[in-house]
Each structure stands twice: as C-alpha cells, then as structure tokens.
Amino acid sequence: MPAVASFLKMHAIEISLVAILLAVFTFSAYSEVIPVNDGKGVDGEFYYSVAKSFLDDIGTVGYDNFRIQRIFPFCLINIFLAAFSIEPTHQVLMTSMYLAHYLNLAILLAFFFKLAKHLQWKRNTTLILFSCMFFNYFFLKNCCYEPFQTDSFAITIFLVSYYYLLKKKTALSIAVATLGLLNWPTVTYSLMLLTLFSNSFPKDAKVIKINPGKAFAILVPLMSVGAAALLYIIHKEEILGNIVGNPISIPMILVSLVAEAGLLYIIMRKISYRFPTPMEFIRNTNWKLLAAMAIPLIIVTVVLKVLSNGAFYFNGSAFILQSILRPLKYPFITPVSHFVFFGILPLLALVYAKDYAKKFLEINPGHALVFFIFFFFAVDSEARHIIPYLPLLIVPLGSILDQRNISLKGALSLIGIQLALSHFYYPINSAGFEELFNNGDFANPVVQRYMMNYGPWVNGEFFLFWAILWAICAILLYVKHPRP
Description:
This protein is an all-alpha fold. The protein is built from 25 helices and no strands.
C-alpha cells in the first residue's frame, strides 16, 4: 500500500477538490429542486417526457425537427427502464436523472485530468482550471436544481471528443462529436471544424486583409443598432421591450450600446490574426476526412428528419435577434452575466485578453473559426449558450497560467474566490416562488434568486449588485495577477 499512500499524499489537494465538488453536488441534489412542474422545470418538461415515453412516442407522434435533436441522454433512460421493465414513475425518473448526472460528472472528471496530463499543465494551473471548470453556479447549483437539461451532457460530448482530437484519435473524436446531433448540434458542427482544419496552413497562404477582431467589434454593435431601429420603423417596438425590459429606456439603451461597443473594441482590437482566404480553406481541405465526418453526420441527420413530425418550435431569426439585442438591457450586462454564471473564468480571459486570443487563434485555422463562432454566442447575455465550449475555453488559459508560474497560495486564493462566487449556498426556493414564476413575475426579488443567473431576465437591483462585484474582482485580478 505504500504506492497508494504516496499517490494520496502527492495528489492531496486534487483529491480534496474532487471531494468538495462531490459533497457540494450531493448537497445541491438533496437541498432543493425547482418547484415548477413538480421538479421538471420549464424546458425540462420536454426532456422529462422523452425519458418517460420515448419508445412510445418516437414511432407515433414523434418529435419536431428541433426537439428531436435534444433527446440525449433522456432517450437512453427510457430504453434502460423499458429493458428492465421498470415503471417510469415520477420518482424513478427523477432518481434516474440524478444518477445520469453523477455518471456524467465522473466522465467529466476523468477526462479533465486526462486533458491536464496530455497538455502537461503545471499543478497549480490544473487546480485553477479545475475550479474554473467545476466550481461555478452551473455545476454546484443548477445541475441538480434543474436536472432535466442537456447542458452538462453537451459539455461532456465536447470534452471527450476534443480530448481524442488532441490525441489524434480522429475516428473516436468524430464518433463522439456525432452524438452531439442528439443533444446540442452546435457542439457537433464546432468539433467538425476543429477536426477538419486541425493542421496549420502553409506560411505563404494568402490571407484576407481585414482584421476580423476589429470587424467583429464594429459589426456587432451596428447589428444591434440596426435591429433596434428596424423594430421602431416597422412599429414592433414591443419586441424590443420584451427583450430589454419594459418600459423601454432609450438613454439606457444608448449607454448600453456605447458600453458594448467600447468593451468589444478594447478586447477585439488586440487581435492581429488574419484569416486565410476561402480558396486557401478549400485548397487545404482534407477531402477524405471531410467525407469520413460527413457520412455519419448525413446518416444521423436523415434518420432524424425521417423520424420527426415536421412541426417547428424554433425560429433561428428570433434567436439571432435576441442575441444582438440583449446586450442593450444594461451597460456591460454580457460580461456581468458571464461572471454570475462562470465566476473567474471570463475575468481571467478578460485580464489576459490579448494573450488569450493569440493562444486560441494560433493553434490552427479550425480554432480560429470556432473562436469567432463562440464569440458570437458569447455576446448574448444568456451565458448558458456558451457552456458546451467550457472545455475548449480552459485550454488557452492553461498555457497562459503555466507561463505565469502561479504560486500555490495564489491558486488556492483563486479557488476560494471561485467557490464564493458560485453562490451555491444561496437558496432559490422561497415562499411564493412557484406562483410568481408561473405568473411571469420575473422581476420579483423572490423569482430573481433564479432568474438573475440568466442575464436577460435580471432586474436592476440584482444586476447592480453583480456589476459592482464584477468590477471589484476584475480590478483585483488585474492588479494582483502576474502579467508579463
């Protein structure tokens, strides 16, 4: 047993962090569950129905074109229960979902440490990135509070596929990435881009002269202005009101627009990357690899199309409209909302913005493409839209932290701050929550315990609290954290 004792001593802090994660995760599972729809939640009601009656529904009423791409892992729960003749009662389904989350967490932990070993992160870097990955509101509170969701499983699909891609096990990477078509299709498409353009282009490759960072920083605010102006022109300002909050405050929108444009310009102007021309992408495409990726993707897509009932519940234009208008609700609402959801990760990326973008973009053309796809989703103040990218986001940060040689004391202080910011200890359920929530009274302080975590619905008081905290933490990190 000396080898075991030596391992435990060498990895005492890592083991302690895992123990804390499991303890808090379990605490959340037992402390409270969303009271809406008897613990199913709003979006969770559909996923619950898949877990309960997938085998009965898939060949009869079926699912619409959008939701049929969100049935994993809930369909597996139904298949498992049917195989063992277990009646899918409410308690059985809730227990099954929690067990699925524990299994998912175990896979995430295993592959996180595999990733850390493969990239040879220093110990203190690994500790900080572990806290960024797991010690946030989502894992320490939301996973168990609202168990019927796709988010955590999308993270796992991304992490496992990305790990195999880095290990150059392309077939395994593609196989896992294809699973995203049943859970969160954006994950699949992003991983396909990372795989297809994983090799650097020749140094003499022709590039587009436009700076993509500055172009992005100019284009997004212009899109926000254009969308808001168009809604007024066509007399649909009530849509703007629903997105940014009623009543509409033009001065607030203007200040928010200036704040958004200024922050985007400060961040993106530092990007000196130049994209290769479309012809270079075509010239450097591995057509055999493209075919290997396209075949399973097409097969799964066609099967899902055949099985779907043709009804639509998703409007892509409305999603884009929301994404570009939501940052106008309050000044700096997007970075504040990401701070509420993820803690110190977006702050560290902001502090090291120039190096972070450089590390990300210079990996290969695939990462450069996905960087801007991710950044478009990140502009939206609903931070959960970028949560599948969490494994990808910590990789460039790992390189930066390794170079900074963060001390153990510094690492532990960041971990402590991250734990505190996760606000897992702040109970959501309180008297009247369900009734107020069902009545749409989202601005009520009782409901804000939940809604503040999803930026578009935060009220002024909770936003002000988190904005002040965000500013304080950002200043402290900038002043205290080592930079070159």
